[in-house]
Amino acid sequence: MKDILEKLEHRRGHARLGGGKKRIDAQHKRGKLTARERIALLLDRNSFEEFDMFVEHRCDEFGMAQTSTVNGRTVFVFAKDFTVFGGSLSETHALKMTKIQDMALRARAPIIGLFDAGGARIQEGVAALGGYGEVFKRNVIASGVIPQISVIMGPCAGGDVYSPAMTDFIFMVEGTSYMFVTGPDVVKTVTNEVVTAEELGGAGVHTTRSGIADGAYANDVECLLQMRRLIDFLPANNADGVPEWPSFDDADREDRSLDTLVPENPNKPYDMKELILKVVDEPTPRARRRASCGSATRSGFPSSPSSTCPDSCRAPRRNTAG
User: Fold this and answer.
1) Are strands 178-180 and 155-157 parallel, antiparallel or unpaired?
2) Per-residue pLDDT tens digits for 250-293
3) By the 8 A CB rule, do 76 and 109 touch?
4) Is the dihedral of CA 142, 219, 37, 196 positive or negative?
5) Which of 31, 123, 241, 301 suits 57 as a labelling partner, its CA being 20 to 30 A distant?
6) Is 239 within the bounds of a domain?
7) What is the dihedral of CA 36, 198, 201, 30, to 10 degrees?
8) Which residue in 37, 29, 35 sits closest to 87, CA to CA?
């Protein structure tokens, strides 16, 4: 029995290495964490249970999927491992993803996807593409039922962009994450247009122009810590009430400045952000170029203030998210 347990632990150690130390070091040099490091930072310590650790592609392991808790609340998570075949999706990898999606739906709990991959594994052809079809199907079934959060943490294309586009929230990491249907090389081949990855699908493009992403963060660590905070504002599912949090803001307080903050002249601009800050308990604004939107609490209950802003109070071009 001891020999069996030793072999099991050896296999676990091999699986945890993903693509090997050399590729892990390369990931760190790019300023990115590995899939397992991201999961460890996102989830409560010692709370996750990994599924199908030894499931293999026709050649090697891919990604990971598990159930865990964030701030004591049950969540389901899957992460793409860029150190293994660039995180590309295989048939067996798709089965792991759909399994965790099904479990999240049955448990009526939020699901978080950490994306760092380049789409389907071409060597598997239709089998890999069919796997994406099953993932998309579950994105649609879960829509409006449980919160679906996508975090883009590397260069993503193809199916690893289509699936996040169908989820409720999309967040990116500045300088290291990209979302596009096809990359700059394909664009150059087809249209003869030279474009950089950042110009084609970087965080700046999708948070200030296309509106696809809800926000961007400076690095992996900040992004994942803010995802932990976001979970605190969300209900577990469409039949569950929103969480209530302690509030130090007196619900009966009066702020006389609100009487004059909004001018009588409808053509006169005023600062929407100041208005939001005076009304809510604690905001987490996500500033767009001409709008303020985000999450906050009022009397301890989550709310989502949203407002447009005149030209005179446009947000800075560089988007921030809280």
Assistant:
1) parallel
2) 778 888 888 888 888 888 888 887 888 888 776 554 544 444 55
3) yes
4) positive
5) 31
6) no
7) -10
8) 35
252 close to 209: Cβ distance less than 8 angstroms: no
User: What does the alpha-carbon distance between residue 202 and residue 298 come to, in Å, rounded to a whole number?
Assistant: 34
In contact, 78 and 93? CB cutoff 8 Å: no
3-state secondary structure of 116: coil
Task: Report how far residue 71's alpha carbon sits from residue 272's, in angstroms, rounded to the nearest whole number.
Answer: 31
Q: Do 135 and 270 lie in a common domain?
A: no
Q: Which residues pair with 284 in a beta bridge?
A: 295
Q: Where are the beta strands (DSSP E) in 104-183?
A: 111-115, 148-152, 155-157, 169-173, 178-180
- Length of the chain counted residue by residue: 322
Q: Is residue 252 part of a domain?
A: no
In single-letter form, the type of residue at position 159 comes to: G
Say if residue 35's pLDDT is above 90.
no
For 158, other C-beta atoms within 10 Å of its C-beta total 19
236: in domain: no
- Are 310 and 167 in the same domain? no
Give the contacts of 237 (CB within 8 A, at least 6 positions apart). 108, 109, 145, 146, 147
Is the model's pLDDT at 7 over the cut of 60?
A: yes
CA dist 110 and 158 (Å) reads 24
- Look up tokens 């890999």; give the residue: 128
The position carrying tokens 């504002």 is: 233
The count of structural domains within the chain is 2
> What pLDDT score was predicted for residue 292?
52
User: How far is the C-alpha of 104 from the C-alpha of 38, rounded, in Å?
Assistant: 20
Distance CA(96)–CA(108), nearest Å, equals: 18
